[in-house]
Design goal:
The protein is of the alpha+beta class and 128 residues long. It has a single domain, classed as Roll (Nuclear Transport Factor 2, Chain: A), CATH 3.10.450.50. The chain is 27% helix and 45% strand. It contains three helices and six strands. Strands 2-1-6-5-4-3 form a six-stranded mixed β-sheet.
Length: 128
C-alpha cells in the first residue's frame, strides 16, 4: 500500500495534468473553475493577475488563442508536500502549437478542503 505522501504526490500530479489539459484546451474556463478554489490567483506571463472576482473578465482573458497548444509535456517535475492538506507542484513546461514553442517554468499551489478535494489556490508561469 502506498504511503500517505505517495498518494498525495499522485493526487497533485493528476490535478496538475488536469489543469494543463484545461489550460491548453479550446475552452479552458469551465475546467479551470472546477479545479480551483474561489479565491484562486493566476499569474500568467505578460498579463495582470487574474482572479474569479470578475468571472466574465476571467473567461475573456483565457479564451482562445490563450495557451491553445497541440501538445505539452512536463520536465523537472517536483511535488513539494507542505503538509497533509497543502502542496506545490513545480515543473518546466514545453508546449507546441504548429511550429511555435512555449517554454515556461510553472508553479501551482494546491490545498485540500475538508471534503478531501484538492483545489488550486495559486498558479504562476514564467517564460524561459
Amino acid at each position: 500500500m502506498p504511503s500517505m505522501h505517495e498518494r498525495i504526490r499522485e493526487d497533485l500530479l493528476n490535478k496538475e495534468r488536469a489543469l494543463w489539459t484545461a489550460l491548453t484546451s479550446a475552452d479552458p474556463a469551465p475546467a479551470i473553475f472546477k479545479l480551483s478554489n474561489p479565491e484562486a490567483n493566476f499569474m500568467f506571463p505578460r498579463r495582470e493577475i487574474l482572479t474569479f472576482e470578475d468571472e466574465e473578465e476571467f473567461k475573456r482573458m483565457v479564451r482562445p488563442p490563450f495557451h491553445r497548444f497541440d501538445a505539452y509535456q512536463f520536465e523537472q517535475v517536483r511535488v513539494i508536500i507542505v503538509d497533509l492538506m497543502a502542496g506545490v507542484v513545480t515543473c518546466k513546461v514545453r508546449a507546441v502549437r504548429g511550429k511555435k514553442e512555449y517554454i515556461a517554468s510553472s508553479s501551482t499551489t494546491w490545498s485540500q478542503g475538508s471534503d478531501g478535494e484538492w483545489t488550486l489556490a495559486a498558479h504562476q508561469e514564467t517564460l524561459l
